[in-house]
Amino acid sequence: MAEHRPQVVVTDVRMPPAFQDEGLRAAVRLRADHPGLPVLVLSQYVQRAYAADLLDSGDGSGVGYLLKDRVGQVEEFVAALAEVAAGGTVVDPEVVRQLLRRRRDPLERLTPREREVLALVAEGKSNGAIARALVVSEAAVGKHIGGILTKLDLPPADDTHRRVLAVLAYLRS
């Protein structure tokens, strides 16, 4: 980094090797090591936790979080990049909407069936036990759990157990 001294960093949230959140973690770390470094992060989906982590890095200036849809709108992307490089903050309007929804009960986004599945997960039931209790396939349970994790903004990460975090969200609300 010291050798190259970039004027701005553009990265994707998901980068090699695992394509989870490596790009975001690198951006947050770069901003911790070099607080004035402008960083623009691109994401396919709104991940409120990712956006919050990035916006909390450094003093909040020279940072941007855009959905990849904006990249296709070249003038808008170039304007956002210039704003971030100049020390401004750019946040995709959809990300803003999602961040504002953050204050609500996270479980309100779940369907009744997903709440039922989450309640059984909170009881410590396995997918097989949940499938038997609800008279559905294990694949259906897996699909519901995937929906729960997505709606609760719990992306895959090596250092967390998403089912436990989902249960904690359930117990808090």
Explained architecture:
- Helices cover 50% and strands 10% of the residues.
- The chain folds into 2 domains: 9-101, Rossmann fold, CATH 3.40.50.2300; 106-172, Arc Repressor Mutant, subunit A.
- Helix 5 crosses helix 8 and helix 6 crosses helix 7.
- The chain is an alpha/beta fold and 173 residues long.
- The radius of gyration is 19 Å and the shape is elongated.
- A 4-stranded parallel sheet has the order 1-2-3-4.
- Helix 1 links the parallel strand 1 and strand 2.
- The longest helix is centred in the C-terminal third of the chain and has 14 residues, at 138-151.
- The model has no long low-confidence stretch (mean pLDDT 85).
